[in-house]
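During data preparation, a discrete fold description was generated, as reproduced here:
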Amino acid sequence: LAGEEDGLSVPELEARMTDPEVVAPFVAATGIDALAVTIGNVHGKYAKPPQLDFPRLDRIREATALPLVLHGASGLPVEMLQRAMRSGVCKFNVNTQVRAAAREAARDAAMRGDDVLATMKATTTAMKVVIVEQLR
């Protein structure tokens, strides 16, 4: 947690990041089969260009062989995603991008006067396009 206690200060950003020192004990204590990490990634849209802490990610990778998950990958540049994959991230969550595509498709369908089934099909198609693009 961020703050100060007993003369020790933990900056807010540092407090929000995955601590590589606690990864191995956490994995052992919980028996999880994948680990979602925080290395500067955020849910939703990035207010400023993202800066991921790849040295931290590398230390996390050294602490566990588990598959790593990165939430908040919507809007990350391809180079960052590729770098994260090289460090063991094998699942990315891009919900913000998927929802934005669905919202735009629903708006377009409403403007055309489509019925609910056509709207559902349009939103599903739009979401699939984003997902397929992210898989490349």
In short: The helical segments are 12-16, 20-30, 54-63, 78-86, 95-112, 116-135. The first helix runs from residue 12 to 16.
